[in-house]
Design brief:
The protein is α+β, with helices and mostly antiparallel strands. The protein folds into two domains: 49 residues, no CATH class; 86 residues, no CATH class. The strands form two sheets. A five-stranded mixed barrel has the order 4-6-7-9-8. A three-stranded antiparallel beta sheet has the order 2-1-3. It binds zinc ion. Zinc ion binds next to loops.
Length: 140
């Protein structure tokens, strides 16, 4: 399977609200974002697997002028962080709806539960993460 095909299936999945990764047929490791081969054992065959979209936020980085992403200007308050999914993969994600002041408090509570959130942006869906409701309760 060509890498272009993998990328397009991944984005089609997002459109349907599905988080797709690739599972290694040899060792079972999951690649996310999906890649052609397994990074864990180097085996060349991986297969599609739908990920749960739930996990734990492991780190939290507030946005400054240095790392702000112009694509995210209309997002409101957001941070960056490393999300570890229940499926066992970790990656950098954008976490929405966190104010700077909240981030300082939340950082002392890590790891915290997060869930995937698919937002319609410029005609296609983009993946973000959001802290679970019970975590945000403390700010209400
Ligand atoms: Zn493998």
């Amino acid at each position: 399977m060509k890498i272009e095909k993998i990328v397009s299936v991944f984005y089609e999945g997002l459109e349907q609200g599905k988080l797709l990764g690739r599972r290694c047929k040899e060792c079972g490791a999951i690649e996310f974002p999906p890649r052609y081969a397994c990074n864990t054992c180097g085996y060349h065959e991986t297969e599609w697997v739908e990920l749960k979209g739930k996990g734990m936020l492991q780190s939290l980085i507030t946005v400054s002028t240095l790392n702000a992403d112009p694509w995210n200007d209309d997002l409101g308050h957001y941070c960056y962080g490393i999300v570890e999914l229940e499926d066992g993969v970790s990656f950098n994600a954008t976490i929405t709806n966190i104010k700077k002041k909240q981030a300082r408090i939340l950082r002392n509570q890590l790891p915290l539960p997060v869930h995937a959130k698919f937002e319609q942006r410029d005609g296609y869906k983009t993946l973000f993460f959001e802290l679970d409701d019970e975590v945000m309760e403390q700010f209400k």
